[in-house]
User: Fold Holliday junction branch migration complex subunit RuvA from Thermodesulfovibrio yellowstonii.
Amino acid sequence: MLDFIKGKVITVKPDKIVIQTGGIGYSVKIPIRVSRYINRDEETQIFTSLIVKEESIEIYGFLESSERDLFEELIKIAGIGPKMAINILSTYDRETLYKIIDHEDIKSLSKIPGIGKKTAQRILLELRGILPSLQYEKDQKYDDILSALLNLGYKRLEAKEVLDKIYNNEKDEATIIRESLSILAGKDGK
Amino acid sequence: MLDFIKGKVITVKPDKIVIQTGGIGYSVKIPIRVSRYINRDEETQIFTSLIVKEESIEIYGFLESSERDLFEELIKIAGIGPKMAINILSTYDRETLYKIIDHEDIKSLSKIPGIGKKTAQRILLELRGILPSLQYEKDQKYDDILSALLNLGYKRLEAKEVLDKIYNNEKDEATIIRESLSILAGKDGK
Amino acid sequence: MLDFIKGKVITVKPDKIVIQTGGIGYSVKIPIRVSRYINRDEETQIFTSLIVKEESIEIYGFLESSERDLFEELIKIAGIGPKMAINILSTYDRETLYKIIDHEDIKSLSKIPGIGKKTAQRILLELRGILPSLQYEKDQKYDDILSALLNLGYKRLEAKEVLDKIYNNEKDEATIIRESLSILAGKDGK
Amino acid sequence: MLDFIKGKVITVKPDKIVIQTGGIGYSVKIPIRVSRYINRDEETQIFTSLIVKEESIEIYGFLESSERDLFEELIKIAGIGPKMAINILSTYDRETLYKIIDHEDIKSLSKIPGIGKKTAQRILLELRGILPSLQYEKDQKYDDILSALLNLGYKRLEAKEVLDKIYNNEKDEATIIRESLSILAGKDGK
Assistant:
């Protein structure tokens, strides 16, 4: 629901900022390593994730939408809540985390406060499944269409097989989507 | 609660846009077939439906309020959640869907990802009951008054019977409502 | 949380309006008898009540804050939800409802759609307890202080007894509150 | 989520104000002793706490962020909800409350409406544990870093031990955080 807040930074704490737009000051939780890049009284854009629980509504914020997207993937993993996800991103940035996953570097993962060896192994397993979708398959357009087909309920393998056959960066998005849908609809014997 | 958002489109993905008003960027899920009509950096009005769950608040958006109304009718059908409803509207627009219902075209309905033959039949049944209310009975004013009487708790048959007797497009809305209510209150032996 | 919305009326239906402020159009449910006093394209102030349920957030709106306050009292009565409360206020305005209560006019109460004789009797009983607090005891200041003392947890009888002793419209609110609290704290043997 | 509202005060009641920003009037519950410092039609900044329940969203407001922070600590104590916390802060301001805790003054605590002797003793016990964190350990920067380390999951003793070793007000926040995290990560044998 809430993609970003653009406003004036009012306060900066190691793990929280207050950013104002209109007459409202929003308090936003941030990864500790990010606070040094945010300055009081400056106009800033924070990419946000609205976390709704039965008795709380909180906003988590990031300087890049790709880091916010990674945060939203992390909290889909069973056992990783917003607090643990922000700990992970407080300790390592996105690129470092990819390397840790690629090198199966359990030791670095378990340096994150609150993460023991067993949790580190489970996170490694789950992140391996997610990270490809967070690194561009081919390019942004290909990825956007693939994720739309997955959201429609098609399996990754099925969607990629069709997309790889017809994908060509010259074609516009709408054409590629229409072609994929008609092949996929046909493939399902519908 | 949220009828529309008027703002500048920041990003357009096949199934999602980000639209900004004030300092806030709202992320809005849209039917895939609609994204080709939305352009980045353009001032746009999106008719919205706020979907509140225990652990999420999401916004679904449409270029026409009638399509948003159809979406809100679809999600009242048991077994059809927002995701399935957006799949239906990603595959077919409103007019096509009416034809499919009128011609009891199960084959086309089951082309929608995630919808098998059995679900298609059930949707057909339920949609037949809803669609009349989404196509104008006589005209907008007649429909608005009828839906207000239904919301007050009167049965469709009872309300239509009274409305058909006294309805005349020349009369203003308040008069028609007052007359219907007094007849309906009288008819209930109250 | 949401006391009022000031904005331009975009659409008026018998039981619903859309009012815009900033780039957001809010959809607000209203009593049917009120829609005739609201005109499209006019700047209007609507006094609101935000109704939060597990799977919905809705706004109910009124042209006067006293009618909104009555609505919020009605929905505190067991068995009366927002829909029934808006039916009551769609059928009768505040003054008429007071007369109905004063004259114990069950017949008029049960003319409200969805309200049978038994419910009418129960509403009558409960409304008798509430209405005094909605009609000014003495004046607005007296009522505001009385309701603040009740919110603090003091019984109506206890609070009125103290307030009646020290109340004088010439004194300012803060002084009256301080004097009442010190007497009440003393009376509790604290 | 909601740190403050800056706007024009529309109404002031003993325990509630309405403050407007943009076209929205927000109703905010305040401690009774604070209302005398708030004037109608004046531009005011209210530090807020958004209280989300299954069937309500309410805003509690304070003239100082430190009083709001104390309110948010109080409601973490089992058995103290927002209503009781606002009663406590309606009866005593922050400084007086500190003295009451320091002097273990049960009598004053139980003067708060709704608080008997037993609850007073329990509150005393719990507040003793919280108050140090609300009074500056050394200075604002030291406190912000300490609370960030606690939020990351480190124990207070462990975090304070490391922070006391390396803390020096000349160093900037980012450096102190980086140094503490590397020592803490090392200390955990990670």
About this structure: Chain B touches chain C through 30 residues (CB under 8 Å).
